Amino acid sequence: MNSRRFHITVRSALAGFLLMGGLQALILSLREPLSSGAIAVANWFIGKIRPDAFKLRGTAIDWTFFEAEMIIGLILVMLAIGFGASALRSSKSGVRSQ
């Protein structure tokens, strides 16, 4: 009887950590541009509803940090995909016990 068991290898665990870190870096890099856009939309609505009301203060976006965080996130995600693919190949070519 051939039963398949769930095995976690070092490569697959590393791929999981790299993938989560890469996705976290990508989300973190989008935080400032998305908040700035949300403030601009809120100010537009405030200006249409009550033109004499105070508007929200805009945020400054540091595009250098945005680009650095985006690049780091993409590199981590690509490394995770590479480690995951190599872990999958090594598990398929490994010796299976019967």
Write the SSE topology:
Layout: H1 10-49, H2 63-93
What is the H/E string? HH
Number of distinct helices: 2
Distance between the termini: 7 Å
**Overall spatial form:** elongated
Task: Give the uncertain stretches in residue-range form.
Answer: none
Number of strands: 0
Largest sheet at a glance? none
Task: Provide the helix percentage.
Answer: over 70%
> How large is the share of residues in beta strands?
under 5%
Kindly report the average pLDDT value.
Answer: 84
Radius of gyration of CA atoms, rounded to a whole number: 23 Å
Structural class: mainly alpha
Please give a structural write-up.
By secondary structure, the chain is mainly alpha-helical. The chain has a domain at 10-50 and 65-91. It is 72% helix and 0% strand. The chain is built from two helices and no strands. Helix 1 runs antiparallel to helix 2. The model has no long low-confidence stretch (mean pLDDT 84).
Keywords:
98 residues; mainly alpha; 2 helices; 0% strand
Quick summary of this structure?
The protein has 98 residues and is mainly alpha-helical. The chain is built from two helices and no strands. The protein has a domain at 10-50 and 65-91.
